[in-house]
Each structure stands twice: as structure tokens, then as C-alpha cells.
């Protein structure tokens, strides 16, 4: 068990580092975009169009990945590699055909898509967005197939490599953004999105050849029993993932009706939040989801509950302090990442305000994704779907209430609040279904983490009030570093269980190395 736990910890840390590197490339892309285009209408169009295939087809991809893994594993266990790969080929080919049909429909109905995703655009902005959309919609072919390849690689224990697929994607976009700015041809940005998406597919195809024995065939059977079973399983997943993406669509559509730059401001601040929710939490769920699925499949109730308790504790240790640090150092973070070229001091303040509001939702967003995976491991896809729908309804209501007075900040708050409500509901329902969960232990350890995070926040705020250091980078490093030391000391004094266990494991490893 210790060997398995150490292996999971090692894989998680490696995946976080690799994902952080890949996400770092994404930030460089955003920095380049901010440098050349700032929060101009071209930047707004680029962000809006980029979200069209990403939002729509991420829904397909996430549902396929989550549903494909347990079914492929089941076939492989019962019938062997050959039948399992036959199923994988069928999934690949069916979604390939589907993606082509959806791409053609997207080109034909590009105006309708623009109306949904950026209904507030008019004049030259609307024309540019419509033309960009026709270029970008075919990226759906690459996006859907990338998710199928990703799922297959994860089954084979390959996690780090598929995280790096964002590197060629971002390199292609960075080059095209720069070329578009230097040549004055905005359409190069749209072509860049097309090239970038297919570069991911090519990269994963190379990985498949190098690390697996998978052989692609033209086998396709729409009425296959396992395909029907997968569709039944992923149906609610599709809806629950889709309703989360609807929040993004609603925010972007309403933001496009506000002052110029609102869409870009929400996008830039969302990218920063993505460090926590996508790099840290996605890395954890990617590694731990297969383990959780096995525990539930074997019906080991006691082990399931102990695993989930630790899972929740680990996430709490990470997201509570990170949410506070992002909130307090929002302006400095935006200044470091984006202030250059067309991105001036006023733009920094404009984006930092949105980042502060999104920081309030980091905890809710992170735990929502974690708890969704717990329910998926139980093969319960209905509960996340219902809660996702409730979250969207809350988001829509708050959007229309808050946008009049608070504009783009109201949209950000609605998203943060809706995700938090969804998390609370999911947690309550998880406790009902898993009655062996030690709720008192979770509350006790979480309160320790909240207290330690409050100490961290107080130290950070006190440091910022003195304002001795004016350089943003030094502020984040020194003030943030001092705050984290205070957080660690508080956790040690409070004897937070998981943190103490982790410290002991690190000590043992160092002693072993010294002994060698």
C-alpha cells in the first residue's frame, strides 16, 4: 500500500510540474497577445472564437475520456487487448465521422454560432468574428480525437507526455499572433488556431506509436453494444460538462455587450485561475481517478472512504492558501504576466479586479471537479448533471441581476458563486451516499487548514500594507514566501494530519538517500 501511495504521489508531482510547464507556455501566449493587441476588439474576437470549438467540443471530449476509461478497462480485463483495441478503434472512428459533420455544420451556421458566443459584437467586430469562426470550426476534428488519444494514453499509465501537447499548440499560436501583428493581417490568428489544434493531434499520434502497440483500423460499428453502453454512461456526463461550459458561453456573450475589453479581461483572469484548477486539480484527478475507479469496482467500502477523506484533505491543503494568495496579489500577478506593450497600467487594474472576483471561486471550482470524479467513479453520472444544471440556473439569474450595476465584475462573481453552490450540494450528496465517510475528521482537518490559510492571508495583507517593496515580482516572492512559511508553521503547530504524514515521508526519503 505504501509503495502504491508513493507511486501515486510521485506521478502526481511529476504531472503537476509538467502541466505547470505546459500551462506556462499558455501564459506566454497570453502575454504575447496582450503585448500586441491588449484589450482591443481583435483580442476580443480572438478570445471569443477560440472558445467556440473549445467550449462545444471539450464537452464531447471530457465525456468520452471519463466514460471510455472504465469500459476499455472492463473489456481488456474480460476479453483481452485485441477486443479492447477494437473498441478503441470504433470509438475513434465514430467520433472522427461525427467531428467532420459538426465542422461542416459549424461553417454553414457560423453566424448563429457568433450570435450565441458573442451576441454583442457589431459592425467590423462582428464581421471579423464571423470570418474567424469559419476558419476555426474545423479544429473540432482535432479536439475530439485528441481526447480519445488522451484517454488511451492514460489507461496505459502515460500521464506526463499528453500534458505536454499544449507546448506545440502554444508555440504555433505565439508565432501566428506575432506574425499577424507584424504583417497587419488579423486572419493569421485564425489560421494559427487551426494549425495549433492539429499540432496537438500529430503530437499525440507520435506518442501513441512510440509508447503503445495500438494499431489504427477502419473498423466502425455504430450499433456496437459497448458503444451504446458508453453513450448511456456518458449521457449525463455530457450534460453536466456541457452545463459548466454554458456558464462560459453566457459570460462571454454578456461580456461582449459591455465596454470594449470586457471579454479579454475575463479571459486573461480566467487563464490565471487555470493554474490552480487545471494544473494542480486536473493533475490530481488524472492520476487518482483510475485508482478510485478500481476501489469502487472492487466494493472496498472502507478503503473507498479513507481514500476520499485523504483526497479532500490534499485538495484543501492546496486550494485554500492559493485562493487567498491570488486574491491578495491579484494586481501584482497581472502586472508580472501581462503589463507590456498595449497592456498598460489601466488595463492591469481592469483585469486584476476580475481576477480578485474569480479567486473567490477557486475553492468551489476545484472541489466541484474533484467531487464530480468521485461520483463518476461510483458510476453515478446523474448527480453531477443535476447539480451542474442548478449551478447554471444560479449563474444565469445572478448574471442578469449583477451585470447592470457591476458589469464584467458581476459576471465573474456569478460564476464563482454558482460553482461554490454546486460544490456544497455535491458534498452533501456524497456524504449521504458514502455513510462510512468520517465527516468529523474532514471538518476537523479542514478547519485547521482554514485557520492556517487565515494566518497566511493576514501576513500577506500586513506585508502589502507596509508597501516597502514596489517591484511586483519581489513582492510576490518575498511577501508570498513569508506568508507560506507562516502557513506551514501553523499547520505543524495544529498537527494537520496529511501535512504531518507528508513531512514524515519526505524525512524518510532524505534519510535513505543520506544512508546511500
Topology, element by element:
Elements: H1 2-37, H2 41-79, H3 81-108, H4 110-117, H5 123-136, H6 139-155, H7 160-163, H8 166-183, H9 187-211, H10 225-255, H11 262-298, H12 301-328, H13 330-338, H14 345-359, H15 362-377, H16 382-406, H17 408-433, H18 439-466, H19 472-494, H20 497-515
Helix pairs in contact: 1-8, 1-11, 2-3, 2-5, 2-6, 2-10, 2-11, 3-6, 4-5, 5-9, 6-9, 8-9, 10-16, 10-17, 11-12, 11-14, 11-15, 12-14, 12-15, 12-18, 13-14, 13-19, 14-17, 15-17, 16-17, 18-19
Low-pLDDT stretches: none
Structural class comes to: mainly alpha
Major β-sheet annotation:
none
The whole-angstrom Rg is 23 Å
Total of helices: 20
The SSE order reads HHHHHHHHHHHHHHHHHHHH
Mean pLDDT score, rounded? 80
Q: Outline, from the CA principal axes?
A: globular
How many strands appear in the DSSP assignment? 0
Termini, distance in Å? 24 Å
Proportion in β-strands: under 5%
Helix content: over 70%
Describe the structure.
This protein has 516 residues and is mostly helical. The chain has a domain at 25-37 and 41-244. It is 86% helix and 0% strand. The protein has 20 helices and no strands. It has helices at 2-37, 41-79, 81-108, 110-117, 123-136, 139-155, 160-163, 166-183, 187-211, 225-255, 262-298, 301-328, 330-338, 345-359, 362-377, 382-406, 408-433, 439-466, 472-494, 497-515. Helix 6 packs parallel to helix 9 (187-211). The model has no long low-confidence stretch (mean pLDDT 80).
Amino acid at each position: 500500500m505504501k509503495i502504491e501511495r508513493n507511486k501515486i504521489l510521485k506521478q502526481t508531482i511529476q504531472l503537476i510540474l509538467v502541466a505547470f510547464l505546459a500551462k506556462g507556455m499558455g501564459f506566454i501566449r497570453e502575454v504575447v497577445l496582450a503585448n500586441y493587441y491588449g484589450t482591443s476588439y481583435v483580442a476580443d474576437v480572438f478570445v471569443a472564437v477560440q472558445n467556440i470549438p473549445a467550449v462545444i467540443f471539450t464537452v464531447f471530449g471530457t465525456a468520452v475520456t471519463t466514460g471510455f476509461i472504465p469500459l476499455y478497462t472492463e473489456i481488456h480485463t474480460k476479453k483481452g487487448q485485441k477486443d479492447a483495441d477494437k473498441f478503441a478503434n470504433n470509438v475513434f472512428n465514430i467520433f472522427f465521422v461525427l467531428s467532420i459533420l459538426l465542422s461542416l455544420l459549424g461553417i454553414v451556421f457560423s453566424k448563429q454560432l457568433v450570435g450565441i458566443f458573442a451576441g454583442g459584437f457589431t459592425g467590423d467586430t462582428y464581421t471579423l468574428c464571423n470570418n474567424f469562426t469559419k476558419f476555426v470550426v474545423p479544429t473540432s476534428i482535432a479536439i475530439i480525437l485528441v481526447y480519445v488519444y488522451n484517454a488511451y494514453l492514460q489507461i496505459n499509465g502515460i500521464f506526463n507526455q499528453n500534458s505536454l501537447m499544449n507546448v506545440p499548440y502554444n508555440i504555433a499560436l505565439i508565432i501566428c499572433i506575432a506574425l499577424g501583428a507584424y504583417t497587419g493581417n488579423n486572419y493569421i490568428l485564425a489560421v494559427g488556431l487551426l494549425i495549433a489544434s492539429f499540432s496537438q493531434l500529430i503530437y499525440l499520434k507520435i506518442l501513441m506509436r512510440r509508447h503503445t502497440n495500438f494499431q489504427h483500423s477502419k473498423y466502425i460499428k455504430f450499433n456496437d453494444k459497448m458503444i451504446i453502453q458508453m453513450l448511456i454512461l456518458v449521457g449525463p456526463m455530457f450534460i453536466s460538462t456541457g452545463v459548466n461550459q454554458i456558464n462560459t458561453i453566457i459570460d462571454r456573450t454578456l461580456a461582449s455587450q459591455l465596454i470594449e475589453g470586457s471579454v479579454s479581461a475575463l479571459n486573461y483572469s480566467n487563464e490565471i485561475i487555470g493554474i490552480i484548477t487545471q494544473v494542480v486539480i486536473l493533475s490530481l484527478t488524472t492520476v487518482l481517478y483510475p485508482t478510485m475507479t478500481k476501489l469502487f469496482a472492487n466494493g472496498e467500502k472502507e478503503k473507498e472512504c479513507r481514500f476520499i477523506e485523504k483526497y479532500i484533505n490534499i485538495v484543501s491543503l492546496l486550494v485554500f492558501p492559493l485562493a487567498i494568495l491570488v486574491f491578495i496579489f491579484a494586481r501584482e500577478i497581472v502586472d508580472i504576466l501581462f503589463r507590456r506593450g498595449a497592456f498598460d497600467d489601466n488595463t492591469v487594474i481592469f483585469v486584476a479586479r476580475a481576477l480578485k472576483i474569480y479567486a473567490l471561486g477557486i475553492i468551489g471550482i476545484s472541489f466541484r471537479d474533484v467531487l464530480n470524479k468521485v461520483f463518476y467513479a461510483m458510476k453515478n453520472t446523474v448527480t453531477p448533471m443535476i447539480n451542474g444544471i442548478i449551478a447554471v440556473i444560479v449563474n444565469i439569474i445572478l448574471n442578469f441581476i449583477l451585470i447592470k450595476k457591476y458589469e464584467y465584475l458581476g459576471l465573474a462573481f456569478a460564476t464563482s458563486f454558482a460553482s461554490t453552490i454546486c460544490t456544497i450540494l455535491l458534498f452533501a450528496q456524497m456524504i449521504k451516499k458514502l455513510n462510512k465517510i468520517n465527516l468529523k475528521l474532514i471538518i476537523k482537518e479542514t478547519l485547521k487548514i482554514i485557520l492556517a490559510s487565515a494566518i497566511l492571508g493576514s501576513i500577506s495583507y500586513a506585508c502589502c500594507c507596509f508597501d516597502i517593496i514596489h517591484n511586483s515580482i519581489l513582492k510576490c516572492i518575498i511577501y508570498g514566501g513569508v506568508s507560506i512559511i507562516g502557513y506551514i508553521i501553523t499547520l505543524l503547530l495544529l498537527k494537520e494530519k496529511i501535512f504531518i504524514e507528508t513531512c514524515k515521508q519526505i524525512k524518510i526519503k532524505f534519510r535513505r538517500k543520506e544512508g546511500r
